Fold this sequence. Notes:
Elements: H1 2-13, H2 18-28, H3 31-34, H4 47-75, H5 80-101, H6 106-114
Pfam families: DUF6594
Protein name: DUF6594 domain-containing protein
InterPro entries: DUF6594 (IPR046529)
Amino acid sequence: MYVHASIEDFLFRVPIEEQADRCIQRLLKSNTEGSRTSDTTIHHYSTSGLDVAARIIASSIGAGILLIPVFILFLFDMSRAKMFAVVGSFVLAFMISMSVLVEVTPHDLFIGIAA
């Protein structure tokens, strides 16, 4: 999953402050894997925790992409052609982002767009 790999890269590259590190440790670290070594520079993260974080991020992005055009349609007075362009572009953006962020089949993607 692309989001899963991005989270791992982010955790590896970005220096994390002490307070944020404790929060991430509680959410993502694996206690059983961490007991294998006494080296403090080695961090073992739980695959299930990373999967949950990846799903939350992908769901948030998908929901945001689907809700933004609704707000645009309510906030701005537009012609029908512009409304169609806004909705069409965001549906296309949703389709592309979900196919990149989450491993979906074309059948699942069609169901997600139709819903």
